[in-house]
Design goal:
mainly alpha; 3 helices; 56% helix; 5% strand
């Protein structure tokens, strides 16, 4: 099956070094980006536990990280367009 990724989605994916081909399932890409997000979130939490990040700054950094991975919160069904709209 051929997928036509939305241009803005492709731009966001590129920021993470992800370049899906037209045959790459969007669900697979979403899972990969979600894994990246969780990895960074765990790393951030580890830094907080070690005391590298002050408690008062932690929530701000979590929000910044969530914005960096905005695609995780966008339903995967909206990542691609029907052929008729391309």
């Amino acid at each position: 099956m051929i997928y036509h990724y939305d241009r803005l989605v492709l731009e966001e994916l590129e920021r993470h070094g992800v370049r899906p081909t037209p045959t790459t399932r969007p669900e697979f890409v979403h899972e990969y980006v979600s894994d990246l997000y969780r990895f960074e979130l765990r790393r951030l939490r580890g830094r907080r536990v070690r005391g590298d990040i002050p408690k008062e700054d932690y929530s701000k950094r979590v929000i910044e990280l969530r914005k960096k991975y905005i695609l995780v919160s966008i339903p995967v069904g909206l990542w691609t367009a029907d052929e008729s709209t391309c």
